[in-house]
Amino acid sequence: MNELDRIKSEMFDEKEKVFLDAFNVEWNTLVNNLYYNQIQLMIGNRIRPRLVYWGYTAGCYVQHKNQFFVPLKIAMAIELIHKSSILLDDYIDNDKVRRGQPTFFAEYGDKKTVIFVLNILGNAIQVINNLSANNNIKPENYHHIMQSLANTMREMSLGVLKELELNETTQFDFNTIQDIIDKETSSLLSNSLLFGYYASGNHNALSLEHIELIGRKCGYMFQAMNDLEPLCQAAKNIEYKGQLNTDFASKRKNIAFTYLYPQLDNIDKKRLLQAQENHDDKIILNLVKEYEIAKQILNQMDLVYKNIISLINQMKDHNASEDWCTGFSGLISRLYYLCLERLGE
């Protein structure tokens, strides 16, 4: 069973299943009409479209599937932006494999990757523009969505630029790494919820602020746990990417090392930096294990997870239903424990 099928089999919300099935039909049609139809565009867990669904249903009770037209289009735009970041990430990291399948970069090279990413982003903007042109969304909501979309693409690219300029000092600075995570990952997850909520037509400034906070905390939690995967499950990471990629060895961000470095004595700090320079993953993994970094981070993520569930339940103060709070909490819980399972916890 692949990841998407497994996630679908664990859904408890029937309307979410209907939404995701409809999304996959439309997504397949869209991808087939893109200039390239590459495997990386088809695989994945569809978390962001599902967040669009939960954002939409936070403000709108769904009575029939025809109501899904607008949030489905928004979910497609969000997924296009996500896929563009995946293609660029593989190119920057020189990864030939992702999820056990060849990357776009491996098949088409750097020039076509960059140009195709621009093409994908253009398609994402066009999807939202078509909603406005056909009067499917109110002008004020279109303005908010397009403004957020532009901000998201700017923030994501800025996060990558900051990551590429990490040095021996900033790579261990917690605030710097947290800011990169917020820009690269959390912003898109947060806007997946927000755009769905905009589409519901039932929102205000306070509720938008609250749901954005939920999305950003989810983004931080899931990225921090994702950073641990190559450090806790090296063999699986090799299977997933074709080679071990700790990020740190290639001088990219990994929040685990903002925990590790301050605890090291001068000798171990020197060992860590030499291991990074020599791409010696064995020493890196040993230091992470010796100082129990995974345990420290997971203890912190448990607190973040509990805070997210509390924030979701507080959505009742913003007119979300009890069923919505229960359903969305269930999704976040299943994803959280799936992350723990991947880490061998």
Q: Can I get a quick summary?
A:
The chain is mostly helical. It is 73% helix and 1% strand. It has a two-stranded antiparallel sheet.
Characterization of this structure:
This protein is an all-alpha fold and about 350 residues long. It has 14 helices and 2 strands, in the order ααααββαααααααααα. The chain has a two-stranded antiparallel ribbon. It is globular, with a radius of gyration of 20 Å.
Strand content: under 5%
- Low-pLDDT windows of residues: none
What is the H-and-E element order?
A: HHHHEEHHHHHHHHHH
Structural class: mainly alpha
> Kindly state the mean pLDDT as a whole number?
91
Question: What sort of overall outline do the alpha carbons produce when their principal axes are compared?
Answer: globular
Q: How many individual β-strands?
A: 2
Fraction in helix? over 70%
> Could you tell me the radius of gyration in angstroms?
20 Å
Distance between the termini: 21 Å
For the biggest sheet, the summary is:
2 strands, antiparallel
How many helices? The count is: 14
How do the strands of the widest beta sheet line up side by side?
Answer: 1-2
Oligomeric composition of the shown chains: single chain
Descriptive labels:
two-stranded antiparallel sheet, 14 helices, 73% helix, globular
Per-chain topology:
Layout: H1 3-9, H2 14-32, H3 47-59, H4 69-93, E1 97-98, E2 101-102, H5 104-133, H6 139-164, H7 174-200, H8 205-232, H9 234-241, H10 256-260, H11 266-277, H12 281-290, H13 293-313, H14 322-342
Antiparallel strand pairs: 1-2
Helix pairs in contact: 2-3, 2-4, 3-4, 3-7, 4-5, 4-7, 5-6, 6-7, 7-8, 8-9, 8-13, 8-14, 11-12, 13-14
